[in-house]
Design goal:
The protein has 216 residues and is an alpha+beta fold. 41% of the residues lie in helices and 24% in strands.
């Protein structure tokens, strides 16, 4: 398929049955990052629980012609409050999330500090004078991943369009995303789709850029 041409896919709501594939795509798309370092078991638990949360939502790209096992070609996830989402997952689904997380902490204790940073990073990213910071009017894009061999075929754009349409349905006025300052490919993608850089901050010892765009 020529690069840049939208792939023949169908977009469906992200669901628990997509979690293992979402974890695999996340690890392939963001090697070496904090969430990837938590491991496949933890990521699978997070993506299984996220669409069941009051604050989480997302979409998956599947082949247009249904295949056995619901092959996931890409996915996007978002939340109306990252800090609240992680606290909710921990409080309501501790039985499912804590066992793989504690096992990972035992193998890599340094991840405990980075987990604490993850809980407070919404405060680091928030603009001091932001008029759109309230949960009911803004959302954060958490992750958007596409099967590596299918990148450049428009799947990411289709997923982002579905997410923006869902934000509009939920009366969300602003969609934000945090990008590693050194990830030039991601920064070009968001700039191409109407996001503008709002500010920079430090997280995990790295420079991060906060991008945002109005919904609609």
């Amino acid at each position: 398929m020529p690069a840049g041409k939208p792939a023949d896919v169908r977009i469906v709501r992200l669901a628990p049955e997509h979690a293992a594939a979402a974890a695999r795509l996340h690890i392939a798309g963001q090697p070496g990052t904090f969430l990837t370092n938590l491991g496949a078991d933890v990521l699978t638990a997070i993506y299984a629980l996220l669409p069941q949360s009051r604050r989480g939502f997302g979409f998956a790209a599947l082949p247009a012609a249904g295949e056995g096992g619901e092959v996931v070609l890409g996915f996007v996830s978002a939340t109306t409050g990252a800090g609240g989402l992680f606290l909710e997952l921990g409080a309501r689904h501790a039985g499912k999330l804590l066992p793989p997380l504690l096992a990972r902490y035992m193998r890599a204790p340094g991840l405990i500090v980075r987990s604490a940073q993850t809980l407070i990073y919404p405060l680091l990213a928030r603009e001091p004078d932001s008029a759109h910071a309230a949960e009911h009017s803004s959302a954060e894009l958490l992750s958007i991943m596409v099967e590596p061999r299918l990148r450049g075929q428009g799947i990411g754009a289709l997923l982002l369009d579905a997410l923006l349409a869902e934000c509009a349905t939920r009366d969300i006025a602003q969609l934000d995303v945090t990008v590693d300052a050194h990830n030039e490919g991601a920064r070009r993608f968001y700039a191409r789709h109407g996001f503008t850089e709002r500010r920079t901050f430090r997280l995990y010892g790295r420079d991060m850029c906060l991008y945002g765009r109005p919904v609609g």
